[in-house]
């Protein structure tokens, strides 16, 4: 009986592994982005949320999940807990512990690349939303409200 269970678990793992690898490669090739209208897109191009001009971050269902306050802090809309903050230079973002999460790199067009602390491009944001680029952190880290 133990052998059947082990075989089934290995079989399920083998079936699921390719789809997990494809999902990871899609996100690597097409990082998350915030377009000119404030739509937050995942690595596959699906809209997963929005960022308003007043820096309110909402999931795809319109639920408020976070906002950027007047001091550049990313705040959880439900708990009021500070999740991170913008650096004084306006191009770096730190988590709540003060550790670097990512930096903003201006491009020649109207967009900015978002680069993590290891130098890997993790997203792209329209220039008009770079003050809210930390919204991508909410979606990548799964801070959306569960129903």
TrEMBL record:
Keywords (A to Z) from UniProt: Signal
Report the leader peptide range. 1-23
Q: Mind telling me what this protein is named?
A: DUF3659 domain-containing protein
Q: What organism is the protein native to?
A: Spirosoma sordidisoli
């Amino acid at each position: 009986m133990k052998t059947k269970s082990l075989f089934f678990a290995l079989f399920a793992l083998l079936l699921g592994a390719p789809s997990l690898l494809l999902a990871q490669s899609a996100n690597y090739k097409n990082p998350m982005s915030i377009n000119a209208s404030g739509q937050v897109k995942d690595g596959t191009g699906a809209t997963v949320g929005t960022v308003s001009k007043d820096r309110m971050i909402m999931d795809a269902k319109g639920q408020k999940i976070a906002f950027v306050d007047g001091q550049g802090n990313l705040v959880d809309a439900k708990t009021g807990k500070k999740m991170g903050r913008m650096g004084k230079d306006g191009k770096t973002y730190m988590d709540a512990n003060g550790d670097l999460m990512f930096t903003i790199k201006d491009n020649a067009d109207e967009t900015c690349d978002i680069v993590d602390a290891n130098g890997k491009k993790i997203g792209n944001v329209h220039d008009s939303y770079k003050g809210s680029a930390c919204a991508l952190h909410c979606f990548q880290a799964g801070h959306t409200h569960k129903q």
